[in-house]
Amino acid sequence: MRTLRRSVLLAGLAGSLLLLPLTSASAAPTWAPASTAPIHPGVQTTTPSGQCTANFVFYDAVDVYIGQAAHCSSTGSATDTNGCTAGSLPIGTPVTVGGASRPGIMAYNSWVTMQESGETDPDVCQYNDLALVRLDPVDASRVNPSVPHWGGPNGLNTVGTTNLQFVYSYGNSSLRLGLALLRPKVGISNGDGGGGWTHSVSTVTPGIPGDSGSAFLDATGKALGVLSTLNVAVPGGVTNGVGDIRRELDYLTSHTTMTGVQLALGTVAFTPNKLPLGL
Description:
Layout: E1 5-10, E2 44-47, E3 50-53, E4 57-59, E5 64-68, E6 94-97, E7 104-109, H1 110-117, H2 122-127, E8 131-134, E9 166-170, E10 184-193, E11 198-204, E12 215-217, E13 223-234, E14 237-244, H3 245-255, E15 262-263
Parallel strand pairs: 1-13
Antiparallel strand pairs: 2-3, 2-6, 4-5, 4-15, 5-8, 6-7, 7-8, 9-10, 9-12, 10-11, 11-14, 12-13, 13-14
């Protein structure tokens, strides 16, 4: 299984965590019913590097994609947090997607793109952690973009978070042993960092290895980000770092030819007052 990128913060020291608007809008595909769709946010994805959790669904005029963290295809260690220098499997790598009848293909990886484009901004290098897996056309009709348990996303967060705002997620690490009660997670934001590229969150339960890439929704059900790192502070406990999905999508559209890629909205209404089974 792919381990969350790890950052250890010593007392008094800051540690590492690991824009153009979307254009060429296309009509959304016809999605499978949420109650029966086998492919959706929260399914497990597996590359030769290990197991992760899918975040959001995306589409353009031709293809349907499901997101995972870029570091899910890392060829380095869990402490290799700089996407501008860390090794990665190449574009075209097959990815097994839970519920899909055929492997998907890694069509975009922010780490690969940053290295090809010579990115040097330290915040971008540390926190831009998104990959898109192109689903086989046979599986495109088997997809629903709604986040399990919570519903949504109902839009794209463009303003970040503030301290103590609620956040919602859905993890699917193999370490959770398939127990549904451990998958939904609710928590709070500890604020933004890295010039808005990252959000520090505390959830019950914390994101663990294998949850990498999980979708995070903000307090209103908008897509906030992608679970990227497990941060251990001494003192301070365990938090997670969440890469900002709006900035990650902007980077994709401004640095590749995939300019028509859009976030798919959920067909199930966001319901934040559901009791998380993991509490």
